[in-house]
Amino acid sequence: MKKVLPRPTIFTAFFATLVLFMSPDFLQAQEGDPAAGKALFNAQCAACHRLDQRLVGPPLRGVSEKYDRSWIYNWVRNSAGLIASGDAQAIAIYEEYNKVPMTAFPLLSDADIDNILAYIDAPPAQPKAVEATPVVAPPAESGGNVNQIVIAALVLVLLVLVVMLILVRNILTRIAAANGIEVPVTQSKPIWKAFAENQFLILVTVIFSLLGSAYFAYGYFMQVGVDQGYQPVQPIHYSHKIHAGANQIDCKYCHSSARTSKHSGIPSLNVCMNCHKNIQEYNGETTPEYSKAFYDGEIQKLYKAVGWDPDLQQYTGETQPVEWVRIHNLPDFAYFNHSQHVTVGGVACETCHGPVQEMEIMYQYSPLTMGWCINCHRTTNVNVKDNEYYNKIHDALSQKYGVEEFTVSQMGGLECGKCHY
Amino acid sequence: MASSKKYWKSVEELDSNNPIVAQLSQNEFVEEIPTADFLGDEKNLQNSSTNRRDFLKYVGFSTAAATLAACEGPIIKSVPYVIKPEEITPGVANYYASTYVDGFDFANVLVKTREGRPIKIENNTLPGTQITANARVQAAVLSLYDSGRLKQPTKDGEAYPWEDFHLDAAIKFSEITEGDVVFLTPTLASPSTNQILADFKTAYPDLNVKHIIYDAVSETAATEAFQKVYGIRALADYDFSKADYIVSVDADFLGDWQGGGFAKTYAQGRVPKNGKMSRHIQFESNLSLTGASADHRFPLNPSELNQVLVKIFSQVTGTAVSSGSTTADDKLATVISDLKKHGSKAVVVSGIQDVNAQLLVLAINQALQSEAFDNTNPRLIRQGHHAAAIDQLIKDMASGTVKALILNDVNPVYSLPNGDAFAEAIKNVEYTVAFANRPDETTALVQYLAPLSHNLESWGDVEIKKGQFALIQPTIDPLFDSTTFQQALMNWSGNETPYYDYLKKYWEENILNGTSWNQALHDGVFVSGSVVELSAAVEENTVETTVTDFSAAASALAKKSYNGDTLKLYTKTALGDGRQANNPWLQEMPDPITRAAWDNYLTVSKADADRLGFTNEHVANGGLNGSYAKVTVGDSTLEKVPVIIQPGQAKGVFGLALGYGRQAGLKSEMQVGVNTYKLYKNFDTVQAVTVEKVSGTHEFACLQLQNTLMGRGSIIKETTLDIFNSEDKDVWNEKPHVSLNHQEVPATSVDLWTSFDRSIGHHFNLSIDLNACTGCGACVIACQAENNVPVVGKVEIRKSRDMHWLRIDRYYSSEETFAADTEKKENISGVSQSVSQFGELEIASENPQVAFQPIMCQHCNHAPCETVCPVAATSHGQQGQNQMAYNRCVGTRYCANNCPYKVRRFNWFLYNNNDEFDYNMNDDLGKMVLNPDVVVRSRGVMEKCSMCIQKTQKTILDAKRDGRVVKDGEFQTACSSACATGAIAFGDVNDETSQIATLKQSDRVYHLLEEVGTKPNVFYHVKVRNTVES
C-alpha cells in the first residue's frame, strides 16, 4: 500500500496561515459591503474556499492583510497569468496547493472583490451559546387521554356497581334472616361441568380452536422470511432523509447502475466524495437524537473509509471499504432486474422502496414476496411509449385483447421462467 | 369352497423341491443383517461414553438449536468499491478479446467477465480470427480457478521472494562461463517472446543459450517436411471450404491434427448448397471424429496407410513408385481418379508422423494445385523440435554440459517416454528453474519454482499464421503471486519495464505498421497487410531449402511397414495432451466416440477382441465393464489398460489416448487413466506393440450403452446427396403418420393438447444441422460453463446420473449403412426373425456409419413433462421455452419419466459445498466461475436445458433499454455461440427475416419423434451423405 507522506511545505504553509490569522494586527477591512460580499462569496468562491478552513484552495480569512490589494485583484481575475509572469508569491501559492490553478474571474470588478474581502474580514460570528433548552414535556396528546379517562370512569362505575350489589345482597340476606325466612340454597352445577357434559359444545369449541390455531399458524409461517420493515443498523449512519429528502438528490445519482444493471448498486465511496469533498459538516436540521456533532462524526467515518485527509485535502490511500448491511434481499432463485423496471418500465423508485426521502434510517418498505410482485404485474400497464421495441408487439397485442394498453401479465410477465432460472 | 389358486412370487416357488424356496421361507432377509454383531457386544456398548439418555439429549438439543437458528435470518453484508473502476458496473458483463494459448491449444476468444471475474470463454468472430474455441479452451476458464495452482515462488520447496529469485538468476547467469543454458518451452509462436529471448542473449553474450521447443504431442514430421520444401519451420494451412474432394490419410483434422480448428471451413462445404457438398474420404486406423464425419471410411493399419499415401502420390504426380497392396485397393483406384478429376478443388491431408509421408502430402497438393492448400501463410503453432533434440538434451544434462535449465510450462518427466532419464539427468544440472501453473512431476525436481500466470491473467501475443497476429490480454489480476515467462526473462536481462509496455512498444515498432494499438487490442487480432519479417523469429525458423526428392521419399515410405500388431496413439477431445487434467469439466466430458468419461482405454476391433479374449459387458446397474490388457512397446509396459471394443477400429491396430494417468499435483478424483506417453517413443504415434489379456474387470463410466439405432431411421434421418437432389422431399424426409379412426393421417394433424397462439412477440427455435455437426463437444462444455452444471464424478456417471444439459448422442450403423439397418428392420417378420435380427441390430458393424446428434431439452410446445408435474414446477412460456422453476420442484421425477427425449436431469445429491463431490463447486476459488445469473440447484430438484433463458432475457432487455428491435443474430444460446461449424443456430422464428426462420423453411427440417406430437421448438436437419458421386 502506498503511503503518501504529507510534504513539509504544506505544513509550514498551513501553520503560517494560522499564525497570520491569529496575529494581533488583525484589522478590519476598511471598505466594501460585507452583505454584498457574502452573496458573491457564496456564489463564486464557496466551491473551493472556506473562511477558516482549507479546501481545494486556501482559507481566505486574512488574505487582505497578507497580500497587497492590487495583487489580489490581479490574482482573482487571472491567476494563471500571474503565475506565468513569474510572480514569486503567485507561484508559491500555486505550488502549495497541488498545482491546482484557481479559476479566473475576469468579470469581478474591483468593487466586487472589495465587497468579498469585506465579508471575509468581518469578525467571525460568535457561535450562539447553545442554551440548553429545558426539555418541556410535550403536551399530552388529547386523543389518547380522553380514551384513558373514559375507561377509568367506566371502571370506576363498574366497581361502584359491584360494591352496591354486594351491599344490597348483604342487606337483603340480613333482612331475610331477621324475618326468619329460609333462603333455599340451590345446588347449581359448576359451569365447566355443564360444558364438559355438552358434547355438541365441545365439538364446536374444538373445531373453532383448531381453525383458529391453523389461522394463526398460517399467519406466522407466511411471515417467515418476509422482512418488511427490516431496519438494520448501518456502519455509517447514512440519512436518506437528508440526502434524498432535504437535498433532493436524485436516487439515480448515487444508485446509477439501477439504470443499466440488475443491481441498483450501493454507490462506491468516490461518488460520496463528489459532494463530501466540499461538504465537511452538517448544517441542516437536527434533532436531540441526531445532533450536528453526530452527523459530522458520520462524515468523518466516510473520510476514514475512503482515506481522505480533510486537513490536507488529499487522499491518504489508506481505505477501509464499508461493510453495509444489505436490506433488500431476494432469494437466489429469484431474478430481479432494476434496469427493466427503472429504465424500461419507468417505475418510480418510491413504488417499491417507499418514502425514502423521509427515512432517517433506511428500511425495507415492501414485503418483496412473490404475491406482491405478481399483483403489480397484473395491474401495471407496460410502458410502450416511444420504445421501438414494443411497436410490433403493441399493435399485435392491442388487436388481440382489443385494448390500447396492456398489463405486464398479458405480455407474459407472470411466467415462472421470467424470474426463476 | 376354498380357493385352490396358488399365488407365487417367483418361478422357483412352483418347484417345491427347490432348496431356495425352503431357505427363503425361513429367512426374511437373504443376507444376514449384522445386528447381533453390533448389539451382542455388551461390553462395548456399556463402555461407550455416550449412553442412550445422552444421545437423546444431544438429539433434542440439536433439534431445538437448529429450529431456533432457522428463525433468525442471516445478516448479509454488501461491500461496494471504494473507488469503482469506470468500466465495471456490478451486474453487467464485460467482454474482452483475447487469445487462448497453452502450447497445445490456440484460439481467438472473447472472455466474458462479471465484476472483474472471467466466467466464460466465447468465440471471437471478427474477421482475421483463425481458430475457434474447442471444448478444452471453453473449459480453460475453470483451470484459472484451480485451487491447486502454485501460489508463490519457491526455492528448494521453501517460499522465496521474487526479488531474490530474480537476483539469484542474474547472479547465476553471470557466473556461468562454459556450458549451455537451455530454455525448454512448448510452442510459443510469440513474436515478442522471441525478441525477449534474443534480448536475453544480448544481455549475456558469453552464455551459450539454446532454446529447445518441446511439444508434448508433436507434429515434428509435418514441420520438418514443410521446412525442407518451403524453408520455414511451420505447417501448411488448409481451407477445407475450398475443397470439393477431401482425402485424409490418418489425419484427424476435426480433432487436434496440426493444431485443430479446421472444422469451421470443413463444415461450410458439408452443408448441401445448390445440390452440392464436398466429399470426404478417410483412411485411418482408429475411429476418429473426422472418420465419423466422412462419407467413406476405410479402416486400415498403419502399414497400409503408408501404401495408400504412396499410391495417391504416385498416380497424382505420375511418378512411378512400387507400393504394396492394401485391403482398400479396389476403392482406392476410384478415389484417386476422382481426386485427379477434381484437381485444384481437391485436397489431401495426412497425419502420419513420418517426414516422408508429410513430404508426399505437400507434393500431392502441389501437383493438384489445391486451392485449399495454403503454403504462403503457414501455421506457426506447432514448432516442436525433433525427439533427437530432446534426447540430446537429456544426454547433455546427464553429462553436465547443461549448466542451467529453464523449463517453461512443460512437464517432460511425465510426458517424455524417457521421462525417468530426464528426471535422473536434471539432478546434474547446476541451476534449474521451472515456470509452471501447477505442481507436477517435473516441478518436484527443480531448485527454483516460479508460479506461472494463467493465460487469462497474462499479456502476450501470438502469430497463429504467418502475418496474422493475435493479442492476449489479462482479464483478471493474477490470483496468486505469479509471473509470466516473458516478465521474468526481461527481469533477468536487466529490463525493468513491465512486459505490457514492452509488448506495446514491440508491436508498434514491428507489427502494427502505424495502425492503432488500441484497435488491435480491442479486436484481439491483427492481420498485417504487408509482409512482416520479424528478425528474431526468422533467425530461429528459416533454413535454406534444397530441391526435395519426392520419389525417394515415396520409395522410403513404401518400404516402411510394421510386423504384427500396432499401437496408434491419439489425443482425446476432452483432455488433449493432458495439460488440463485437473479440470473436472473436461474429465467428465464424455468422449464423442466412445461416450466414456473419466478414462483412457485401449480401443480394439471386435476381431482382435475375440482373438485376444477381451470382453465388454453391460452389467445390471447400467454400467459398462471391460477387460484389462497388458500393453508392451519395446521395453515399456503398461500393466493394466482397460479395453473398449471399438467398432470401426482397424484390425491389428490398438488405439490409446495420450494425456491421462497423471498423478503429481492432481486431486485424487482426477488421477484417472494410464500414462501412455511412456509408449510415445520418438514422437511417433504408431508403435509396434504386443497386447495380451490380464485378469480383472474395469468399471467404465460410459454414458451410452445402446450404440445402434436399431433401424429407427426417424431418429436420425439420413439420405444420400443423390436422392436428396433427385427425389421429392417426402421421399427422403418422410413425415410420420399415425392411425386415426383407422385412417393414416399425418402425425401433426392429431393432437392431445390445444394450441396457443405464438405469433406475438418472440418465439425461439433452435436448429441443429446434422450435416455440420462434427461431435466436437464444445457446446457441451459451453453449456456447462454458462448454466452452472455440476460435476458428479466417475461413480455417478457410471450410474448414468450425468448432469449435462446437452449431450451428443453417437450412433453406429449395424449394417454397412444406416439405410441398410432401416431396411433390415422393415423386413423383419415373425417371432423367430424378430428375436434373431433385432438382436443382430444391436451390434455395431465392423466399419459402421457414424452419426452424431446433439440432444438437449426439445422445448416441446406440447410438452409431456408439463402435463404430469403435480406442482406445476415446469410450465411453458409464450416465447416457446419450457421453463423449470427449481424452487417449486418437489422432486417427484414424473417429468423425467414422461419425457420422450430423456433430457431431464435430477439432482440426486447436493453437488455444491459437499465433500463427497469435491469438484469446483466445493471450493471457494472454483465457485468463482459460476454464472451469477443462473441459480445453483440444490438436492432433490429436477433441472434441464432452459434454452439459455438468461441470455434471451438479457438480449430482450438490452433492446428494450435502447428502444430498438432485436437484430438478427443477437439471440444466442451458449451452445449456438460455441458452435464453430454453425451446426447449432438459434433465433426468433417470428422474425421472418431471421436466419432461423429461413432455416426452418428448409426441406431438410424434421422434429425428433414427431409422431409423439410434442411439437418441439428444436428442429434437426436431415443428414445428407455424399456417398455416391454425382
Write a brief caption for the model.
Chain A has 18 helices and 3 strands. Chain A is mainly α and 421 residues long.
Task: Give a structural overview.
The complex is a heterodimer of chains A (421) and B (1030). Chain A has 4 domains: 8-121, Cytochrome Bc1 Complex, Chain D, domain 2; 190-224; 240-366, no CATH class; 369-421, no CATH class. Chain A is 48% helix and 1% strand. Chain A is built from 18 helices and 3 strands. Chain A has a two-stranded antiparallel sheet with strand order 1-2. In chain A, β1 and β2 (314-315) form a beta hairpin. The two termini of chain A are 41 Å apart. Mean pLDDT of chain A is 82; it is low at 1-30 and 127-142. Among the domains of chain B are: 1-71, no CATH class; 235-379, Dimethylsulfoxide Reductase, domain 2, CATH 3.40.228; 562-702, Barwin-like endoglucanases; 718-1025, Alpha-Beta Plaits (2-Layer Sandwich), CATH 3.30.70.20. In chain B, 30% of the residues lie in helices and 21% in strands. Chain B contains 34 helices and 43 strands. In chain B, strands 21, 22, 23, 24, 25, 26, 27, 28 and 29 form a 9-stranded mixed β-sheet that branches. In chain B, α5 packs parallel to α26, α7 runs parallel beside α17 and α8 crosses α13. Chain B starts with 18 loop residues before the first helix and ends in a 5-residue tail after the last strand. The mean pLDDT of chain B is 90. Chains A and B meet through α13, β3, α15 and α18 of A and β1 and α32 of B.
